[in-house]
Structures are given as C-alpha cells and as structure tokens.
Design brief:
Largest sheet: none
Oligomer: single chain
Radius of gyration: 23 Å
Order of helices and strands: HH
Number of helices: 2
Helix content: over 70%
Strand content: under 5%
Length: 88
C-alpha cells in the first residue's frame, strides 16, 4: 500500500490570517495593555503556524482516531446483539 505524503506545513487563508492578527492585537491590548504592530502580529502568527499548528493538528488526528476506534468497538458489540437464537 502506498504511503500518503505528509503535510509539509499547515497554511491559513488570508481571511483566517486577518482574523487571527486581529485576535492577537486584541489580546495584547486587553491582557497587557499594549499596542502591538502589524509586523509583530505577523511574526507571532508565523510562529504559531510553524510550531503550534502541527502539534494541534496531530492532537486532532489522535482524537479523531480514538473516536473512530470507539465507534467501531460500539458497532462490533451492537452487531452481535442483533443475532437471533438458533433452534437446535
């Protein structure tokens, strides 16, 4: 079986980047009482994309696999409850 190529980097759309930059700006203003410039916002977002996004992505994959495995286990037990008793 051929192995899938791994994602080299998670990419955000321009709209997503704009929204996250606004969140970073608001966070700094609310939590630290500081204004943060556009360059600093972009640098923080790039850091999150490069370092944090893959960790969060992998965690989401692990969670999805765990959920899927649990659903398959449930299906297996539900399947056997459908069996009818056979007359001998």
């Amino acid at each position: 079986m051929a192995r899938r190529e791994s994602l080299s980097q998670i990419k955000l759309s321009d709209t997503q980047k704009e929204k996250l930059n606004a969140e970073i700006k608001a966070f700094y203003l609310d939590e630290r009482g500081e204004e943060i410039g556009l360059i600093e916002q972009m640098q923080l977002l790039a850091l999150f994309e490069q370092k944090m996004a893959p960790i969060i992505y992998n965690r989401a994959l692990d969670d999805a696999k765990r959920w899927f495995t649990q659903m398959m286990d449930n299906m297996d037990s539900d399947f056997y409850t459908l069996y009818k008793e056979e007359d001998s």
